[in-house]
Amino acid sequence: MRRQLPLIALGLIAASPAAALDLPARKAGLWEIKMVFESRNTPPQTMQHCIDAATDKLMSSIGGGMRQDMCSKQDMRKTGGTITVDSVCQLGPMTITSQAVITGDFNSAYTVKVTSQRTGGPSMPGMPGDGASNMTIEAKWQGACQAGQQPGDIIMADGRKVNVRDFQNVPGMGGQPSGAAGGPPQKK
Predict the structure, then answer these.
(1) Residue 132 zone, left/alpha/beta (φ > 0; ψ -120 to 50; rest)
(2) Long-range contacts of 132-136 (CB under 8 A, 24+ apart)
């Protein structure tokens, strides 16, 4: 689980496009989120995310705090029903320049297409050597959360479950400074 935490966190932040931006909140209930990585030796990642207004807002604040600390640029423009976000972010020794194009709505389905270029830092397994990356996130509202699911639950394809509230305890997320006490979300 610890190795997948960055992928889950970054994916969910991208899948929660209201993070640090003035966008509508997602409809409460169960969302299926599928992340497809192009030109990478990584299979698609599908998860379910049970949200209510409070946990959607929490995702926004976690994502907003991370982006504010890491990104020197984050410009958003809206043209008709399309929202485009251009960012330049520093993640350790890496600089990531990206563009996210968001279409759809936040009540039934939306798509986020992210094109990014990474410079600096070590090569990453499964990623092209030039640092170019394309990812598509497809989010679809499924209805009410299922029995036994709590708002904030993230259910991975293999059945593992974490809750977005657990990210508040991870150093550098949820308002805690890097190096603060805390640990990764625990398997439930």
Answers:
(1) beta
(2) 132/39, 133/37, 133/38, 133/39, 133/40, 134/37, 134/38, 134/39, 135/14, 135/35, 135/36, 135/37, 135/38, 136/35, 136/36, 136/38, 136/111, 136/112
Burial call 136-164: b when 16+ CB within 10 Å, e when fewer: ebbbebeeebeeebebbbbbbeeeebbbb
The mean pLDDT of 113-142, rounded to a whole number, is 84
C-alpha dihedral (45, 75, 152, 92), degrees to nearest 10 = 70
User: What are the domain boundaries of the chain?
Assistant: 5-169
Pair of tokens at residue 21: 């931006």
- Between CA 8 and CA 136 the distance in angstroms is 14
Task: Give the 3-state secondary structure of residue 80.
Answer: coil
Percent of the chain whose predicted confidence (pLDDT) is above 90: 32
> What is the distance between the terminal CA atoms of the chain, rounded to a whole angstrom?
11
What are the pLDDT digits (tens) for 41-70?
778 889 999 999 999 888 777 666 556 678
- The residues near 1 (Cβ < 8 Å, ≥ 6 apart) are 160, 162, 184, 185, 187
CA–CA dist 54, 157 (Å, integer): 24
Q: Which residue has the tokens 């929490």?
A: 58
pTM reported for the whole predicted model: 0.76
